[in-house]
User: What shape does this take?
Amino acid sequence: MNLAHPFVRAAGLALVCFVLLIVLALVYPGTWLLDTLTGLFASGLLVMSLHLLVGYTGLVSFGHAAYFASGGYIFGMFLQTPDIVAAFGAWSVPVATLLALLGTGLFALVVGLICARLSEIYFAFLTLAFQMLLVSVIQGLVQYTGGDQGLMGGIPRPEFLGLDMVQVKDRFVFSAFLFLAGVLVIRLVTLSSLGATLRMVRDNEVRTAFLGVNTYRVKVLAFTIAGAVAGLGGVILAILTSAAYPEWAGWAVSGEAIFTIMLGGLHSFYGPLVGVVVMRFINDVTLIYTTHTDLAKGVAILFVVLVLRRGILDWIIDLRAARRGRKEDDNVSRALSKAGKEAEDAAS
Amino acid sequence: MIKTKQADLSRRKFLATTGAAGVATLASPAILRAAGSPIKIGMPTILSGRVAILGETASVGAKMAVDTFNAAGGIDGRMVELVIRDSKGKPDEAAKVTRDLLSSDGCALILNGEASGGTFAVHEVVRDTKTYCMHTISETSALTADPANRAPWVFRSARQGIHDAISGGLYASQLAKAGATRWATCSPDYAYGRDTTAEFMEFLAVFAPEVELVGETWPKIFQPDYTENITNLLNFAPDALYSCLWGGDLVAFFDQSSLYGLFDQFQTVAVNMGDVPVLEAIKNLPSGIHSGNRYHKDIPDTDANEAWNTSFRESGQLPTNWAWQTYTGAQFVLEALKETKGETGHEKLADATRGRTIDSPFGVNGTVTLREADNTLVDYAIGYGQTVSEAPHMEGFQPTGWDVIADHEADWMKRKNYL
Assistant: This one.
């Protein structure tokens, strides 16, 4: 095995993070941090998967929350079905998770096949339309989905592999596993030749097509992967709240996901994660003092857009690059002047 | 806007001095108990948007009860502190806020000030985390009536939809007997609106089988323009209208309908009309609208109720149905805490609450009870009357007896397979 291979490095990094998070769960005495992180894992997967479309493929999807909600609903509705838990026993939660992943992937595939034929604003609007369709379906099928009150009565989550989803630590460990698995998938895609193709599509789709690439197919593929990973985020939130709500599929969630990416950084892989943490921090701190959380988030976004003029992580990376650049410039000019002096000395 | 002063201060100190992790440790219940520090009650509610008045008046109610309790010495000198947070009325936000109240603010129990949508979200959280909880706002019957939703440590200090439906059905059957047999409905298009309307029509049919439903129109919640619904109603040409629109929606609907002279054309039963802020907000309040009592200073007509009304209005807010319900909920919680001597384990508190009867300005006989069988409030003043344009805005109040309600409720539960 080639340890220097980017795939191996990415997988190794995910494994190290997983071990660190398990250690955190073991040593942390309270529940606050673990529950907060679990919530962040859920929104993290939503924005990271959307970033695969927005940042890497140039597809601005306005309906990404649909797949997030779809994951949560498939997971919840499957486990709430009578006799399912009895039939699958300890395997109920893993089976439901897998089903949510595949079901959401299939849903995204169907939507992707239709939407990927369009581009730019038409693509954005069509994804939005499918999202509103899902919201209407959820609200209409009151019998199955609980309508606007969401999945009521709790989601049964029997123990598996010694993990009890009602316990904060166990839930955290399982959520961390799902989160890291989802992020790893996206990381591997961006590192692979598919990722390179996606960036080509983003930069110039016509030229990519002329190189013999079926751009429609790769866009659908990216859309499906992103949808499935977002569904995994929905599963985490359904496990945490023991319910699922139609608001999860709302345009506000999709919109906030796009803002979060802009806030964190559009051009760096981990930018969206920074955005998620910042958004949550602003939200929670504001909520302690006042109810105007949206105002605070708006001000933060204005600051990032008008002052930094790029996402936070992009700004930090640029800043570091500029510093390093200056240092290198300094070194070069020093070397040049030294050489010049020596030349002068030699001449004289 | 409502502020919880103590919570603000401790939070500021916390943010300034320690890291988040340190605080979470500080907030852990075991240490709190050892230090004899205040018992924190978390209250998620709606403090922003069109129904902010719900959370604002509910918070005043909760604070009144807590302040009185603390002023009387608390639990052997140990104080109780309310931590109130805004959920914006969104269920997913309500679930998050509740979890945060428990895990990061160190609240030991929940006094839930959410409307129905948020209440079911909070309900799942307190069931999951085994936290003692009092729902104070949601009137949706299934919350406590459906055994699938019950948890022994969760209670409801609010009216129950089915009680109002029985009372309203009985009252409206008199209108039907007087000739109003063609009915139409206009209620908000979400769970509470659909369930409450169905329950009312069900009982109207029980008491007056000759009634016929000629049309339904379902405005969206927080809909700005009701022209479409008003046109529908004019087309249905019913003898009587039922509506469970509430708060700002009811005000908007009435103001817009008045332009069409809608209320001159048929009888109207608007169960949520009786809330004082609604009555005062409607520009030209038509007389003769039939409404439930919600909160009224003369129902029951006692000194205790009058005194409560006066002291509530000192806050600058008008008393609402949500206010007395949350006040009552807080009273039950505080009484239970007193009995457990400040212990907040969910089973102990639940044992101290179940079946308890307390003195109350809102009880028909000066007391209200949390019924043992289903942890829900009974014996509160309930009935229907008619609006008049001058304060106190209601006349001809007809109370419904609790023996009547209990009989019909039992039949209903049998029909629903809830028993």
